[in-house]
Design goal:
alpha+beta, Outer membrane lipoprotein wza fold like, five-stranded mixed sheet
Amino acid sequence: MKRLPLLVSLLIIIVALASCDSVRDLPPIEAQQQPGEYLLGPGDEVRVTVFGQPELSSSYLVSDAGLVAIPLIEGVEATGVTADALAERIAAELRGAQVVLEPSVSVEVRSYRPFFILGEVADPGRYPYVSDMSVLTAVAIAGGFTSRGRRDVFEITRAQDGMTFQGQAGPEVRVQPGDVIRVLERYF
């Protein structure tokens, strides 16, 4: 008889811990989500080539304000556009400032902004983004799970279309540059 209250108390604690899992309240991030064309953002490094103008051709960092500062023209807005769209904007600015009469510009991404991983991994922190990386790959880059790390569901904070949202993700979901991944603690 004395064991019954103990078992009931233990059952209540287990149910309470299971219901505390805040990640269940988050919307799922789909595993099949195809990331379309890459949109530039602060922290990306781009290589700008202005053909016939070696003094303008160089690597530039997208600033925190979302601008690329190219000599002889104002900063060019780079946040939320593709590399091709940025090339068109730079060409228009060079033409408008009459720096180059008929500029031919190309832009390529040299390095992506990093992703961040925290929680139950061996070495949480900031890491360089790798194209087509899954959450499980990100965990491996961060040294793997701790003994308490939950392996089935993760929390991702992502900026998209000028808004930040949180979602739950499985290990196969693709990571995007700038994502913050939280590896949760398992209870048992």
